Amino acid sequence: MDINLNKAAQLIKDGKVVAFPTETVYGLGANAFDPDAVARIFELKERPSFDPLIVHISHLDQLNELTEIKDSRVHMLAERFWPGPLTMVLPKHQNVPDIVTSGLPTVGIRMPANKTALDLISLSGCPVAAPSANKFGRISPTTAAHVKKQLSEADFILDVGKATIGIESTIIRLTNYGFKILRNGFITKEEIEEILPFDNSMQSEDLVAPGMLKSHYSPDKKFLILDNIDHTTDKSKAGLISFTGAYEKYFSKVIKVSERNDLKDYAVNMFDAMHQFEDDQSVEVIFAEPVEEKGIGIAIMDRLRKAEYNWQQ
Ligand code: TXA
Ligand code: MG
User: Which of 74, 147, 180, 186 could lock onto 85 through a cystine, CB 3.0 to 4.6 A?
Assistant: First the structure.
């Protein structure tokens, strides 16, 4: 057994905060049943208390301690998508501390598809509450180095290299009719529709996750989605996150996110490209090429728009 994994699990047991890999992005985790440890996540992340955390499990039995729901649809979805990047928002068990759910009567739960994450949760002996391991509103971390850049104060950072998916989980809520999407992510609406119908009825309550603000995932320098090439602006200090390759000739610095025109590669490499340009002193403005809003393109454009939001004139 990896010595670091044992150390990380012991720290979680001791009420400490540990950054760990998942297949989507790195998380900043603590024992979900320890309100003081969870409070420290909010503090380190500088996260507002109204934004609830996802609880990570390694075994289906843990659902019983987190939720009282007996709904066969949960098991159908779990069988198809867990371990994996689907978060289900379910009625919470009274034992789940309010700080985890920001006082909501529901709790977001997922079983990550990353061996280290699953081993860590099992060895810790408790469900692990964890947001993405970035400062609130900043770029999500897909490597341990990204975590270190923003959250060096974490008690420990488990490093197993780059996340394989790179974009956050899809968050859904079950309704009487089917499911609603609270946050688009790696798993598409169409994939979930193979199991349950999509509920497109308009209801005013919680159509989006409370943490889904207009601005998020944002680099600390100007970030814009490339809509058309403005030939008057100087591109000598601009970096391009390129997908098709069509606009590369206009930019001095380019990071190509896919060599085979595959949107999954955009998802995997998008946050890393933002981090690289954020760290590159010679780049003053970051542009990202938009993609068609289909399948995982929906989640990619969601992240790009939120990253751009505060930088638009
Ligand atoms: O892929 C992921 O989901 C990653 C990895 C680490 O698992 N986690 C992640 O967590 O993205 P975070 O905290 O960055 O985003 C979680 C989102 C927030 O927007 C929050 O508002 C929403 O989940 N959320 C959590 N619990 C909820 C609940 N009970 N009801 C509605 N939304 C909830
Ligand atoms: Mg996040």
Answer: 186
pTM for the predicted model, two decimal places: 0.95
pLDDT-based confidence at 115, cuts 50/70/90? very high
Class (C level, CATH) for 222-312: alpha beta
Among all ligands shown, which has an atom nearest to the Cα of 205?
1
Delimit the domains of the chain by residue range: 3-192, 222-312
Q: How confident is the model at residue 183 (pLDDT cuts 50, 70, 90)?
A: very high
Closest atom of ligand 1 to 106 CA is 29
Atom of ligand 1 nearest to the CA of 186: 1
- Is there an atom of ligand 1 within 6 Å of 27 CB? yes
- Looking at the domain 3-192, which fold is it? DHBP synthase (3.90.870)
Distance CA 20, CA 131 (A): 11
Binding site membership of 212 for ligand 1 (Cβ less than 6 Å)? yes
For residue 312, give Cα distances in angstroms to 36, 137, 305.
Answer: 38, 16, 10
Alpha carbon of 54 to ligand 1 centroid (Å):
5
Which residues are within 8 A (CB) of 300 and not within 5 positions of it... i.e. 6 or more apart? 167, 263, 266, 267, 270, 291
Ligand 1: nearest atom to the Cα of 209: 32
